[in-house]
Specification:
2 copies of one chain form a homodimer.
Chain A lengths: L11 E6 L3 H12 L1 H8 L3 E7 L14 E2 L2 H4 L7 E4 L7 H10 L3 E4 L2 H18 L3 E2 L11 H7 L5 E7 L2 H13 L3 H10 L8 H4 L2 H15 L9 E2 L7 H9 L2 E12 L2 E12 L11 E8 L3 E8 L3 H21 L21 E11 L4 H11 L4 E8 L18 E8 L2 E2 H11 L5 E10 L14
Parallel strand pairs in A: 1-2, 1-4, 2-3, 4-5, 5-6, 8-10, 10-17
Antiparallel strand pairs in A: 7-9, 7-11, 9-10, 11-12, 13-15, 13-16, 13-17, 14-15
Helix pairs in contact in A: 1-12, 4-5, 5-10, 7-8, 13-14
Chain lengths: 458, 458
């Protein structure tokens, strides 16, 4: 039988769904490392079938393994573990639910599905006693979910902040190093294979939001879906923003941030300025890095390659060994637990800090007027710097053409305040007659560093 | 019964051996997080006893739990898991073997014991089907053993290189930042609580060697003991060495390095120059960081606090939750596997690179003579720089008093060669009449970076 414990030394049957960039590497590693994997599992791993849409496109997979009948494959008697590297919500959801209901363990790299409907998958796994592993869904090769679920199981995680999307990190790194604008950097990313033809999932933050939902769910024992995650992408980050960050001793990164605040959970994805002295600031190109802060363990950082065929396959195979080993010796991997069931904090109620650059008329009383608007909204200012107007105003600035000789730029960094108060402040500032335009607004993450590190010029 | 699976919802009995810096934090976290831990385990954790030598010294532990009879505690019927945070080889070895033979699972933070006699503990665990976890034995709070054993179970680890001892890292950081010599920096470490009254285990590399043995054993599926690890400490690192490293764009760190070289394992602990651009170079004070390179996953880095009561207790509790959960639902954690059983390479056969600073007589032909000695030993030179004699010769240099006006320093960095050939080269150089003394010898680790990063001045 397929759903029970394999105690008789027979091979563990593996079904693979998908044979693309990751799947072909899974096949390669299963073949090349067959002996070692058998030692680690306690029984040989036997690849019984590979479901693909167009068999003729996969000459590297033995022809007799290829099938277009994924639904038939996941219920085969000789399948113990289903490995899914197709991606997307449907038809994968139905296939994996069927597999779990039939007692097959599932290993998935599918962040979108896990972030949208992880609860249904977890429930199906619990019902049949099968395993559900998905280490590869977040940060590729970097061991992250297992440390959160298991290594830190005796601790209290308070915050996760990280760079979990390689495409946007490549684009922001390119903008910072070359001065390129967003469109130029995106084109370069596409040329080098770091961005897909349709980059929406990456640049608009959907990919990072799915990962944030998965991380927050595991860290805070609360079901958080991608829809619960506040999401802003990097399309609006300008070369002027990058320059403004540099002037503050900062760099801009797209961050996924998950926090427990009192008895609520906050999960968000947005670009933010971080101090250049912070370890995340030096994570460049397509690398990923994630900070985890726990009450007893303190700050931990995990760093590595967040994407790529072999890298993602490494994480998939680690899960496959665990699931297969549980078939051999009994027991189950960690269950998704949602016992804490905390409410998700709205973005407006989440405390953040803003960097605001204002193009203002350079006359007496302007700063007092601007500061008054901040005060009215209960927002405390950390630093203000006044600059003569250079050429650094935002691309969308209507005044770009002919700034008067009496213009100046005010660069303001706030202390932390509810995000809604900060947004309302910026909105109110645009109504002042002395404010000619908002040249840039970005959140600032000190990431635990003292505020003083954010002051001063470059 | 204590050795079997607890399927009836009764509490999991925990015995704690030791209530010092780590043990007292284990008691605190078990108490404060009781509800959350019960959710994660599936049953309450019940602390049934705490074995200490002098009960009156532990007013923070409930008096009725304290006992001096550790041997009696580890065999009690109501104990499922024994948590050991005493440290040292004996009498702990006997206590843990007894516990395992009686079917109790063991969680230990004891690097010395695991590195010396892990095989006996693993065998005892296998025999009774109990668990043996020891995440806290290496790098404190940083999840490291679980990623190596489980997350990377489907990959092939080729190299581990890291900073795994906080005391020596603090001392070397202090020397680099203040120019202090070794003795001054050690005293400062002692004053601030980073070094023990007898710092031998740290500064002579015993602690790091134990950790290297544990890491190499798990990574390469081969039993490696502390005695197999080549070990050099930091007592001989001079302020001149630090300055020489800086001139090469490097910094000096005590590294633990474990490699698979062809069909052998190499494990070593020694100070080494590493490029200042490498992420390990910026790991300062008492922090730990470990790089793992795997065939498919590529380079991964793990960073965090390697010591401290709460930090180490976090790792201990993660293991305790895993062991307790296995009691509740059945199954076992990963076994230590030594199926590969690779031979350990002698240090002399391990390929390394040297930095050699020679005080030489400044006359024609000296460089040719020196280069000839390298060539005779089959050692290829990467860079040579000749410097006028400053005040930077080694502390032990007999010529220190009155250098002649015609002296110079040759700074040589080699390409990689067998360590024995490099050592023999240095020995032969001291026999040249033009060489007045060896001002410094240190290994250089490029850590995968191109050689060019090591060339040039500061």
């Amino acid at each position: 039988m397929t759903g029970g414990v394999n105690g008789d030394g027979r091979p563990i049957g593996v079904a693979l769904l998908g044979a693309g960039v990751v799947g072909s590497q899974v096949v390669r590693l299963l073949t090349e490392q067959a002996d070692e994997l058998a030692h680690r599992v306690g029984a040989p791993l036997h690849l019984v079938g590979v479901a693909v849409r167009r068999p003729q496109r996969h000459p590297d997979v033995p022809a007799e393994l290829l099938t277009t009948d994924a639904a038939g494959l996941v219920t085969r008697e000789d399948v113990d573990v289903v490995v899914e590297v197709i991606g997307g919500i449907d038809p994968v959801r139905g296939l994996l639910l069927t597999a779990l209901k039939n007692g097959k363990s599932v290993v998935s790299a599918n962040k979108a599905l896990l972030a949208e409907d992880g609860a249904a998958l977890a429930a199906a796994a619990d019902e049949s006693g099968a395993d559900l592993y998905y280490e590869a869904s977040v940060a590729g090769a970097i061991p992250l979910l297992r440390p959160i679920q298991q290594s830190l199981a005796g601790d209290r995680i308070v915050r996760i902040a990280g760079i979990v999307n390689g495409t946007t990190n490549f684009i922001l790194s390119a903008m910072a190093s070359s001065g390129a604008n967003y469109t130029e950097a995106l084109e370069e990313a596409g040329r080098l294979g770091y961005a897909e033809a349709d980059p929406t999932a990456d640049v608009d933050g959907y990919d990072a939001a799915s990962k944030a939902a998965i991380l927050a769910s595991l860290a805070f024992h609360t079901r958080v879906t991608a829809d619960d995650v506040h999401r802003e992408g990097i399309r609006d980050v300008t070369a002027a923003d990058i320059a403004a960050a540099r002037a503050l001793g900062c760099t801009i990164k797209l961050l996924a941030i998950c926090e427990q605040v009192d008895d609520s959970v906050s999960a968000r994805v947005h670009p933010a300025m971080i101090p250049r002295s912070h370890p995340l600031a030096s994570v460049s190109d397509a690398y990923n890095a994630v900070f985890i802060e726990a009450a007893a363990a303190g700050q931990l950082m995990f760093y590595g390659q967040g994407a790529g065929g072999p890298q993602t396959a490494s994480a998939v195979l680690g899960d496959l060994v665990a699931a297969a080993r549980n078939r051999v010796i009994g027991g189950r991997g960690p269950r998704d637990s949602a016992y804490a069931d905390l409410p998700v904090l709205a973005m407006g109620d989440t405390r953040t800090r803003y960097h605001v650059a204002l193009d203002v008329t350079d006359r007496a009383g302007v700063l007092a007027q601007v500061a008054g608007v901040f005060a009215e909204h209960g927002v405390s200012i950390a630093t203000v710097r006044q600059e003569g107007r250079g050429g650094s105003s935002g691309e969308g600035d209507a005044d770009d053409g002919a700034p008067g000789p009496k213009d100046a730029t005010l660069v303001i960094v706030t202390h932390s305040a509810p995000d809604a108060a900060l947004a309302a402040t910026v909105e109110a500032l645009t109504g002042l007659d002395s404010v000619r335009g908002v040249a840039g607004v970005l959140r600032v993450e000190g990431l635990g560093r003292p505020v003083t590190e954010l002051g001063g010029g470059s």
